[in-house]
Amino acid sequence: MDEKRAIKENPGLALGGVTYGWLSATFASIDILAAPGFGQEITIPILMVSAGSDKIVSLEAQKSICARLNQCRSMVIPEARHEILKETDAVRSIFWDEFDKFTAGPDRSERQ
Questions:
Q1: How do the domains of the chain map onto residue ranges?
Q2: Pick from 49, 71, 50, 69: which is nearest to 59 by CA?
Q3: Largest Cα–Cα distance in the chain?
Q4: 86 DSSP assignment
Q5: Where are the alpha helices (DSSP H) in 1-112?
Q6: Which residues pair with 75 in a beta bridge?
Q7: What is the pLDDT along the chain (112 residues), one digit of tens a residue?
Q8: How far apart are CA 52 and CA 32, in angstroms?
Q9: Is 53 helix (H, G, I), strand (E, B) or coil?
Q10: In whole angstroms, what is the distance from residue 60 CA to residue 25 CA?
C-alpha cells in the first residue's frame, strides 16, 4: 500500500485514531444531512459514484441522499470497494468514463 510505504519512510505522516472533535463533526454532519429539506436549494448537477462493495460507507445512505438532491445522478460500481480511485485499472476506468461523460455536459453525446 502506498500509505504504509509513505508512513514507513516518513513516520510524521501517520494519523492517530478518531478524535472527539472528528466524531462531533461527523454527528453534526449527519444531523445536517438528515434535516428535513436538506438539499432542496442545491441546483448544481451532481454525479455520485458509489462503491458497491464498500464496507465503510452505506450504499443505501448514499442513494437516499442522492434521491433528495434535485440534480443528482447515482452510479454504482458493484465490484469497487471504499477507495474507488485506488482500485484496479478496470474499476478506475469505469469511474473515469462516467466522470468524463458527466463533465462533458448533456449535449456531448449528440455531437459524437
A1: 1-35, 41-112
A2: 50
A3: 52
A4: G
A5: 2-9, 20-34, 59-68, 89-104, 108-111
A6: 49
A7: 678 888 899 988 888 888 999 999 999 999 999 999 999 899 999 999 999 999 999 999 999 999 999 999 999 999 999 999 999 999 999 999 999 999 998 765 443 4
A8: 24
A9: coil
A10: 21
Q: How many Cα atoms occupy the beta-carbon half-sphere of 27 within 13 Å?
A: 6
DSSP 3-state of 10: coil
Contacts of 103 (CB under 8 A, 6+ apart): none
Q: Are 42 and 69 in contact (CB under 8 A)?
A: yes
CB 80 within 8 A of CB 52: yes
Q: Which of 50, 47, 48 is nearest to 87 (CA)?
A: 50
Contact (CB, 8 A) for 48 and 22:
no
